[in-house]
Design brief:
This protein is of the alpha+beta class. The chain contains nine helices and 16 strands. The chain folds into two domains: 97 residues; 245 residues, Tubby Protein, Chain A. Strands 3-4-5-6-7-8-9-10-11-14-15-16 form a twelve-stranded antiparallel barrel. The chain is globular and about 70 Å long. The N and C termini lie far apart (69 Å). It comes from Rhynchospora pubera.
Length: 378
C-alpha cells in the first residue's frame, strides 16, 4: 500500500479506532446506544487494532508528523494529533515520541501537558471565566487574539468554604469538581484571612515525596494526568500576600514559592523509533522530571501622575483596572521578563498568560488566589 493510500485510509478509519469498545451507535435517525454482545464484533475490533499496530514505526511517525504539520499545530485541529494516539498502543508510543513538550513547541496537546512547564520564548495565552452563582472558575486556552472566542477548555475549579478556610478543588472535568473524582488534579487552600495559600498536587512532584497528612480519603486516582502513580495530595507551592497595615495606596503584594519540574533532555529530543516491549514503554512513562525551586514576586507598578493611579504594561491583554490584576517576575536574575500575568477584561472574564518555568496548573492555582477579599492587604 502506498503512503498516500495509507494516509487516505487512516483519515477514513480513525474515527472507528476511537470508538468505545462495548458500544455502537445506530443510524442517523436512531440515537439509541446498543451494547455489543456478539463475540464476532469484538474479534473484528481486535483484528482492526492489530492491523494498525503492525505498521512500521517509521511509517506511523511519518503519518503523525504529516497530521501535525498539516494544519493541526493549533486547536481545534490539534485534536487530530490526539486521535492518532488513540488508535492503539504502538501509535500512542510513537505519537508521544513525535509530539514535543510545551516548553519546546508551545502547544498543549495531552492532559499531561497541563503540568509541564510552558515555553520560554513567548507566553501561553489563556483566559478564565468566573461563574459567581456556582462559585466555579474555568480555564480556557485562547485560540485567537479576541477575548470573545470560545477557547479550548483546560481546567476548572470550584470554591468550597471549609469552616475556617477556603478550598479551590481543581479538575479536568467541569461537571465533576470534587476531590473524590477521577478528574481531580489538585487543590488550593487558604487560611482564615485569605492571605496565605498552599497548592496541592494530586501527583507527587518528585520520587519519594510524602503526601500531606491533612488529605481527605480518596478511593480513586487521577488517571487523566498520570495513571502510573497513586493519587493523593502533595504540597507543591506556597503563596503569601503581604499585609498593608498602613492602608497605603497600591496593588496587592504577593510572594510565591513553587516546585517546578525541569524538562529532561530525553523529553526534548525524539527517541529512536524502534520496537519497545511493555517494560520499556512503562519506564518511559514513569520517568520522573527533575525539580527546581522557583520564587516569584509581583512586579512593582509605576505611579502615573496624569491618571493618578498605579500602572503596569499588560500589552493590551488587560482592559479593566482592578486590584486583582498582577504580574509576577522571578526574584533571581531577570526582573523584567513577566512569567505570569493576570488581569480583568470583563465582569467575569480574566486573562492569564504564563511561560516557563510555570505550568498551566500552577499558573491557574496562583490566579485563583486573586479572587476574594483579603483582609488588611488592600
Amino acid at each position: 500500500m502506498s503512503r498516500r493510500a495509507l494516509l487516505s485510509s487512516f483519515s477514513g478509519e480513525i474515527s472507528t479506532s476511537r470508538a468505545k469498545p462495548g458500544t455502537i451507535s445506530g443510524d442517523d435517525d436512531d440515537d439509541t446506544i446498543v451494547e455489543v454482545g456478539d463475540v464476532r464484533d469484538g474479534e473484528e475490533l481486535e483484528e482492526q487494532e492489530e492491523r494498525w499496530s503492525t505498521l512500521l514505526p517509521e511509517l506511523v511517525a511519518e503519518v503523525v508528523t504529516r497530521v501535525e504539520s498539516g494544519g493541526a499545530e493549533r486547536w481545534p485541529r490539534r485534536r487530530d494529533v490526539v486521535a492518532c494516539a488513540c488508535v492503539c498502543r504502538r501509535w500512542r508510543d510513537v505519537t508521544r515520541s513525535v509530539v514535543r513538550s510545551p516548553v519546546s513547541c508551545g502547544q498543549i496537546t495531552f492532559p499531561s501537558s497541563l503540568k509541564q512547564p510552558g515555553p520560554k520564548d513567548s507566553p501561553v495565552q489563556c483566559f478564565i471565566k468566573r461563574n459567581k452563582k456556582n462559585s466555579t472558575f474555568s480555564l480556557y486556552l485562547g485560540l485567537t487574539q479576541s477575548f470573545a472566542d470560545k477557547g479550548k477548555f483546560l481546567l476548572a475549579a470550584r470554591r468550597y468554604r471549609r469552616r475556617a478556610h477556603i478550598e479551590y478543588v481543581i479538575s479536568t472535568d467541569p461537571d465533576d469538581l470534587f476531590e473524590e473524582s477521577n478528574s481531580y488534579v489538585g487543590k488550593l487552600r487558604s487560611d482564615f484571612l485569605g492571605t496565605k495559600y498552599q497548592i496541592y498536587d494530586s501527583q507527587p512532584p518528585y520520587e519519594g515525596a510524602k503526601a500531606t497528612s491533612s488529605r481527605s480519603t480518596r478511593r480513586f486516582g487521577s488517571k487523566r494526568i498520570s495513571p502510573q502513580v497513586p493519587s493523593a495530595n502533595y504540597e507543591t507551592g506556597y503563596i503569601h500576600y503581604k499585609f498593608n497595615l498602613l492602608k497605603s495606596r497600591g496593588p496587592r503584594r504577593m510572594h510565591c514559592t513553587l516546585q517546578s519540574p525541569i524538562s529532561s533532555k530525553s523529553t526534548e529530543q525524539n527517541p529512536q523509533l524502534s520496537d519497545r516491549n511493555e517494560d520499556d514503554a512503562t519506564k518511559l512513562v514513569v520517568n520522573k522530571p527533575q525539580i527546581e525551586k522557583v520564587v516569584l514576586k509581583n512586579k512593582a507598578p509605576r505611579w502615573h501622575e496624569h491618571l493618578q493611579c498605579w500602572c503596569l504594561n499588560f500589552h493590551g491583554r488587560v482592559t479593566v483596572a482592578s486590584v486583582k490584576n498582577f504580574q509576577l517576575v522571578s526574584t533571581d536574575g531577570d526582573e523584567e521578563t513577566v512569567l505570569l500575568q493576570f488581569g480583568k477584561v470583563g465582569d467575569d472574564m480574566f486573562t492569564m498568560d504564563y511561560r516557563h518555568p510555570l505550568s498551566a496548573f500552577q499558573a491557574f492555582a496562583i490566579c485563583l488566589t486573586s479572587f476574594g477579599t483579603k483582609l488588611a492587604c488592600e
